[in-house]
Amino acid sequence: MKTTRKLMLAAIILIVNSTIIYSQNLSGTVLNKKNNQPIEYVNIGLAGKNIGTVSDFNGKFNLMIDAQYDSDTLLFSVIGYAPYAVKVAEYKKQENKNVYLTEKVYQMNEITIKPKTIIQKTLGVKTESRFINAGFKDNLLGYECGILMNVKKTAYLKTININIAQCTFDSILYRVNIYKVTGKMKFGNILKNSIYLRLPKAKIKDKITIDLTPENLTVDGDFLVTLENIKDLGAGASLYFCAGLSGTTYFRKTSQAEWQTTPVGISISVEADVEK
Fold first, then answer.
1. Is the alpha carbon torsion for 212, 216, 221, 224 positive or negative?
2. Pick the CATH number of 2-101 from 3.40.50.1970, 3.30.420.40, 1.10.287.990, 2.60.40.1120
3. What is the pLDDT of residues 21-42, one digit of tens each?
4. For the chain, first and last CA: distance in Å?
5. 118-275: what fold?
6. Which end of the chain lies in a sparser environment, N or C, as judged by fewer CB atoms within 10 Å?
7. DSSP of 217-235, one letter per residue?
8. pTM metric for this prediction
9. Quick check: helix, strand or coil at residue 68?
10. If 0-12 CB within 10 Å is exposed, 13-18 middle and 19+ buried, where does residue 144 land?
11. What is the pLDDT of residues 208-249, one digit of tens each?
12. Where are the beta strands (DSSP E) in 168-202?
């Protein structure tokens, strides 16, 4: 019996040591290929896996990846730049861990003429009840959650409204993402410029409104609006939204992970002009 226990203990130690040996903390910097300047808040992670992070204000990042993921793809993406993908094993071999992203070139939008017949609509979840609440309990970089806006025709987006149930952070910094539905649980970001929700605690009210009119955003069909955690805001604090049972929240735990849903709708809504 003692011999069996010793063998089991040795096996456990071997497993633990193997994990330590073959796990690698990847530290690098994401830079603009054109001018060598750091790129802030880049989404970095394994495609389709809950392993990821976000670069900091100076473009720096740290990500622990086990050897079992060496054949997976490490994806770097951020609004305004072309995404970059590399095999984990190849990236681990690089002496220089810098990653260079190329700026996207956007064509100038044509002048949009609104149809003669439009109606103002509030899309999404607009409950102000605090009886049910949900939101950012864990301070995970790249964690995002939001609401799918159901609209059959063209919508001209005006504002995003968020009803807050509780916030214990001293300040908040989140990225606003707007995605067009491209397939089943597949979404593509339509923004050309990053939109940030950055507020000190004194200005965090029960209702937060984000003006979208400067972006001149038009969407055809359903779209997803989310908030994404892009900065370590400290442990022991949280941000909760008002929520209701009538909606569905879409979320993913970190950058590049698969989307999931939960049968509670957080209070994020959009004011829009919609074709009748």
1. negative
2. 2.60.40.1120
3. 356 788 999 999 999 999 999 9
4. 78
5. Jelly Rolls (2.60.120)
6. N
7. -EEES-EEEEEEE-S---T
8. 0.86
9. helix
10. buried
11. 999 999 999 999 999 999 999 998 887 777 889 999 998 899
12. 171-183, 186-189, 195-200
- The identity of residue 122, as a single letter, is T
Confidence bin at 203 (pLDDT 50/70/90): confident
Q: Report CA 104 to chain centroid distance, whole Å.
A: 20
**pLDDT single digits (tens) 107-119:** 655 555 556 688 9
Side chain identity at residue 9, one-letter code: L
9: pLDDT strictly greater than 50: no
For the beta carbon of residue 145, count every other beta carbon within 10 angstroms. 22
Tens of pLDDT, residues 236-246: 778 899 999 98
| Ordered DSSP codes for 144-172 | EEEEEE--SSEEEEEEEEEEEEEE-SSEE
38/92 Cα distance (integer angstroms): 21
